[in-house]
Amino acid sequence: MLKSNTSIILEVIILGFPEMSEKRLLLFMLLFHIYVMASSGNLLIMIVTKLDSSLQSPMYFFLGHLSMIDICYISATVPLMLVILISHHNHLQFSACVVQLHTVIFLEGAECFLLAIMAYDRYAAICRPLHYTFIMKRGVCYKLLCGGILCSLLNSMIHTTLIIRLPFCDNEINHMFCDIPPLLKLSCIDTYLNEVILFAVSAVFVGLGPLVFILISYFYIVVTILKNTSNVGRQKMFSTCVSHLIIVTMFYGTGCFNYVRPRSSYSMERDKLVSVIYNVATPFLNPIVYSLRNNEVKRALINGCRKHFFHKGRL
Fold first, then answer.
1. Cα–Cα distance between 118 and 100 in angstroms, integer?
2. What is the CATH number of the domain that holds 208?
3. Is there a domain that residue 4 lies in?
4. Is 168 helix (H, G, I), strand (E, B) or coil?
């Protein structure tokens, strides 16, 4: 509801997918299963990269943290979607909406920076193999990770502050969760400043900056791979990058469609579906892509299962 005679929102209404009311149960079951599988898969990746002694390199250090971010990311949005779909309880305190907005923006930014750091790790491993252990020391890995988190936090604080300062004429969010584009739609004033900052900070600094860094890293990686005279060597080097490239393409493809556009081009009915895909596809596919294409991860998972069932059988 709106506070009388003011534009201060006390409560928001998440409309969700009213046009799909007859398919609520089907959508609930689909999202529920995706959420369980995505959370379980990423949790498994986190555990195996932490406990398996053969997966203690920087690449798996970052992969474990990517899985942790994905668990938090999908948990920040999907449970609310499930509650709305199954219970029809779509009223949310504005403060809770702001917390969700801040969390989602922060985790999206953290994933952008982490994907860039992982590209740098692949560059160091392939282009500077003799100096790799020095370049990617454990202390350096922590500093890179903390730097990305701090930049993401700053980006999230900027956008959250700008959103809560807006006057609103409505409190019905035509979306499945609190996000920047649907909230801008509710504003009583022109949101040009918010859109400029969204483009300048999120699109350029948080989005385009890491993407350019990734592309430059892979340019040098490809050049180095092509210089390798051995076909086996080329295939081995390239195979370590394919999983990362798939995730980068998925994440940035849907992300650019979601955010890097003027407000006039927003279509909530179309964008809601894209946004849901953006929020569940990457966390869901990350463990699948990395486990199916990575022999070391597959071997660690198989060995872990064997040890578990072996000890269980002995007991």
1. 27
2. 1.20.1070.10
3. no
4. strand
Task: Identify whether 263 is part of a domain.
Answer: yes
Range of 108's domain?
A: 11-314
Concatenated DSSP letters for 52-90?
Answer: -GGG-SHHHHHHHHHHHHHHHHHHTTHHHHHHHHHH---
The model's pTM is: 0.85
Collapsing DSSP states into helix, strand and coil, what is residue 173?
Answer: strand
Distance separating alpha carbons of residues 166 and 12, to the nearest angstrom: 14
User: Looking at the domain assignment, is residue 3 inside a domain?
Assistant: no
pLDDT digit of tens for each residue in the chain (315 aa)? Answer: 554 444 567 788 888 776 666 777 888 898 899 999 999 989 988 988 888 777 788 988 998 999 999 999 999 999 988 888 888 778 889 889 999 999 999 998 999 999 999 999 999 988 898 899 899 999 999 999 999 999 999 999 988 998 888 888 888 888 888 888 888 888 888 777 777 877 777 767 887 888 899 999 999 998 888 887 577 667 767 777 887 888 888 787 766 655 555 555 555 566 676 777 777 888 888 888 877 666 677 676 666 666 655 555 554
Split into its structural domains, the chain has a count of 1
